[in-house]
Amino acid sequence: TLSTQTDYRDGEAQTDPYSPEYVVPSGSVPELLTLATLTWGRGLPAGLAEVEMIERAREKRAWEATLPAMDNALQVVKRRKMMNDMERKEWAFREQEIEKLQEVRLEVLKKLLWRREKNQKELHAKRLDDHWQNYQKAKEEKVKKIQHDCALMLRKLIAKRKNVMGKLERRDIIKEYTDFASQTYAPLSRIGYFPDNHSERYVVKNFYLDTFAGLCELEASLPDSVTQVKIKAPKPKYTTTETGFIKRSARLEVDLAQVHQ
Questions:
Q1: Which residues contact 184 (CB under 8 A, 6 or more apart)?
Q2: What is the pTM of this model?
């Protein structure tokens, strides 16, 4: 009642064809025996080359049937001439096959050479791209360094231009305090000022917290309710009800006390 579906056809799951045993009657040569050398995967199923080979075998058998008998010298000469002609035809046919095979090999070699040349071109292009990337990175680093050096030199020239005559300038306090980027608000570490130094001067110092006398004076100023704690003992809860029964919570406390003991 269930159906299944696979990813393969029946033809893909088919095994090699079975060739049963056979018996040849005496005195008969079936034509099918000429194909005994062909097996599945090696000539079978038959293609164009196998069909041409079968046709040539048939033509050769028909030619052999037309050969004259060797009764006299004339028949022998005629038979030898026919055999020489057939041998020339076979050599010509073999040469054609060799030429076809060489052409196929040449085409395969061309494809391999073309593929190798393509791979070499891709490799050269990748190498050139890598070199170009490296040169671009080096160029960008040089440009950044040049820009940095240019800005540094410009700052030095501007600082020198402010005091061309070499005279000492008086301090303008109003200008320093109006400009929030001045040394008053944002001192630079390159002129000898480090913001992290002297940080202890911002720590709050208190007499009552840092000295023993201050602690004693602070403790004396506190009220008695802070230093002397008064604890009120809790009143016992009634374990019985108005009618004289013991409450369930009381029984549970007794059971827990016994388990604890």
A1: 176, 177
A2: 0.38
